[in-house]
Every structure is written in C-alpha cells, then in structure tokens.
Amino acid sequence: MSERTPWRAAVFLWMCLASQAQAQSSANDPAGSPPFKAGFAERDITPEVGMEMPGNYGKVRGTSIHDPCKVRAAVFDDGTRRVALVGLDALMIRRSTASSARNAIQATCGIPAAQVLIGASHSHSSGPTGWVLRGEFDAASPLVAKLAYEESPVADPAYLMRVEKAIVDAVCEASHRLVEARCSFGSGREDKVSFNRRLRMKNGMTFTHPGRGNPESVAYAGPIDPEVGVLGAWDKADRLLGVIVNFACHATTSPPGFSANWIHYLEQTIRGGLHADVPVVFLQGACGDITQVDNLSPYADPSGEKQAERVGGSVGAEAVKVLLRAEPGHGGPLNARTKVWKIKRRIPDPARVQQALALVQKGEREVGSTEWIFAKEILLLDAIIARESEEEVEAGAIQVGPAVFISNPAEYFVEFGLELKKRSPFKFTWPVELANGCVGYVPTEEALGPGGGGYETRLTSYSNLEPTAGRQFLETGLELVKAMTPGKVPEPPRAPPFTAPWSYGNVPPELK
Ligand SMILES: [Zn+2]
Predict the structure, then answer these.
(1) Could you tell me the distance, in angstroms and rounded to a whole number, from the CA of residue 123 to the centre of ligand 1?
(2) Ligand 1 centroid, distance to 76 Cα (angstroms)
(3) Which of 69, 141, 444, 494 is at a distance of 20 to 30 A from 121, taking alpha carbons?
(4) What is the pTM of this model?
(5) 112, 84 in Cβ contact below 8 A?
(6) Does the N-terminal peptide bond of residue 131 adopt cis geometry, omega within 30 degrees of 0?
(7) What are the residue ranges of helices labelled H in 223-303?
(8) What share of the chain has pLDDT > 70, as a percent?
(9) 74 Cα–ligand 1 center, Å
C-alpha cells in the first residue's frame, strides 16, 4: 500500500478487512454449535534437594535445583464434552498414580477419568514418581525386597501425593478458567536435534549408544520423527491462553540439578517468542529409541546445559513459527476413547533366574556394574511375575478438532509413532508415550529379533512385555481413532471476489 493511497482506497480496504473479520468469526463458530472453550493452568512439583532423581536402574539423588518441574494442564470444552491433556515433568507416572489422579479429577471437577490424558515428559532430572512403589515387593524374599527398595529407584510416597494433588488442582483450575477460545493446529519440522540412538553394527546386531568414533558402527538402525506438533489457543481478544507441543526426543539432556530438562527451554523460548507468559503443555512423542545424542557425530557432546538449550530452544523456536503462521478457528469437535486390556510379560528362563540369584548372592558384586544390575533386574522381574504374569495397560485417543493425541504407557519406539501418523485419518496425529501409566520400553519385533539387541531389548523389571506389545498398542490406537471424524483445519478468511487490480501496479515500465 502506497503512502499516497487516496482516501477512497483506504476506505475500500477497511471495508474488505471488516467483511473478512465478519466471515472469520462466523467460520469459527459453525451454525448452532455452542462456543468452544479452552483453559490452561500449571502447578509446581519441584522436588526437594536430596530426593531421588530416577533415570536409570540404580539410585541417584538430586543435589540442587535448576528450574521448576511442573504439572501443565489444558482443558477443552465443545459444549458436549470436556477433555483434559496434562503434561507432567516426570520420568514416568505409574498406573496407580495416574488412575487415582484421574478419578479425583472426575470427582472434583466432573471431567470423566477416561477423558483425561496424563503424559510424563520422561525428564531424567525430575522427582521420585517411580519406578518401584513402596510395598510392592513386601511379599518377595528379603533379598529381593532389599534389592528393590535399597538398590533401585523408589517413589517417595509424600512426593507422589503432592504430584497427584497438583495434577488434580491444575486440571480443575484449567477447567475453572475455561473461556471462549479459538485454536490453531500446525506442524513444524526440527530434524537436527534428535537422533536414533540404536546403531547397526558390523557384527549384524544393533546396539544402543555404541559411542562416537566406534569403528564397528555402520548406520542408524532406525529413523527419527522430526514433526513438531503445535496446538495454540487464543481468547476472544486474541490473547494467547496456552500451547500444547508434541515432539519425540528423550528428556536426557539433563542440565545440573532437578529440572524439567529441555522442556524448560522449550517453554522459555515459546514464552519469549510470543511475549506471553502462558502454560506450555509438553506431551512426549514416541521416543523410545530417540535421544539428543548423535552416535555418528565426530564431535564431543556439549554440556548438559547446552544440550538442553539446544533441543528445547530449537523445538521451541519451531513451535513459535508454527504459532505465528497457523490460523486460529473453531477447535472442535472433541472426542475421547480408551481401551484397557492385559499384555503378557516375557518370562525369564529358570536357569537365567538361578544364574542371576547366584551372582547377586555372591556378595562380591560391584554395585552399578552392568552384569550385576541386569541380574538384580531379573530377580525383581521374577518376583513381579509371581504376583502377575500380565500387565494391565491402557491405550487412548483424545481428539481436538483436526488433531488426535494417541496415547499409551510405553517408551514407544519411533517406528510405531511414524506408522500411527501414516495410517491415521487425521491431518494431525500426535502420539503420546508414557501416558496414564508406564510399562517401560516397547521395542519393535525386529529389535527383539536376531539382528536386534541393545539396552531397550533387555529383560528387566521395567521393560518386559511380549514382543507383540508394540503392535497391540498401534492397532488399538488406530481402532480407537476409527470411530472419530476429524474436524476441519481452520483456514484464514478467503480473499474477497476479485474486482480490479491495484491501479498503481498494472502499468507498463516507463523509460522516458
Ligand atoms: Zn527412556
């Protein structure tokens, strides 16, 4: 627009914009539908210094605090249903904790338990939400109980109660804060901060983190998922209410101290980029075999702090771009479905259990040594199987308009996440792992086969479901989605009908 635009042109432009705004507002609320609402809230669950910081098979304690760990909640209401999506800065959430929180939400603010998704971010610098629960091994032999309670990560009952209350409070506050809202849906691409951590080796097997410069490494054993899924919600005055981000990368960057891990920098980048101090709900994608570590890089790893900034900042910057470009509109319809069933565990050979027992009983163990750790884990698993040879699991699907969040409690391999996206009828399919429970690693059948191997495929008290588990989660997730009809992706208002080109622009060059 030229500075010397005649006033008539300015009036015409104003009329166009006004009619566009009118068209936009009617497109946002389909005729007869009640207003779509959104609400967000968060709660602090930063652990106390000295508490356990679970993240591997032994005990580690937090010695400082880097940034707050949070519960981050989004609630949507389309006039027919209300759903809640909760991101938890935690390594995991045990099924009993998730169920208890979901039931309390239903009782306190009326959102049905099955319409609440609680997903752990898998932060390896968060508080003691697992993985052993107090009392769980009381019926086992004194040796096994000691291995469970004294040599493994154990949840802190008081902390668990605090987390559970914080989840209920955050969801109920978000529900209380529901206001008329428009939502945007979009995807960005960030393919330089996450890597498949499993590598094909010259011996024909697949190893996890074989290390940089290893001459036996051949290639990455699998893909990554570079999609940054982003849902934004704005109120009637166009103020950002909150954001949901979905991306697949282990939260193992671990800056020093208790921390939301790289999710802290994701939040800071989005808040800074959009000048809005709003909740950022992070839901972890299928990252069972994905981390920030590039085993084929010739360069040394930067510090944990730098890695956290790199991953969180890059994913956050991509999310900002998506939010700036996407068009907000009607966020409905909402839908939610779940299925609960049991999956068999893999049973260790009796000879392997005997060998593990002998190794642990020798008493000459080197605590922390790989062989000893896996022997301890076999004994714990053996005790779990004596109690229950199958594990109760839940898959879920929560639809928000043209997007669907397909969840399960696995550390889910990225191959499954990509297949979910490919086969889903939704434009935006965002897998959420470690949701409403935790069943450890669920690798592909190929990874558990003859050319497989690596950390995720070992039999432990944490990861032990039968090889078809991943496919069961996949097919069940898709089955749940089948009954849903995707909403329309909001579009910008259409240009008004063409009348005439700009009278200053449709002219030939002038040479003299
Ligand atoms: Zn993990």
Answers:
(1) 9
(2) 30
(3) 444
(4) 0.93
(5) no
(6) yes
(7) 262-274
(8) 93
(9) 25
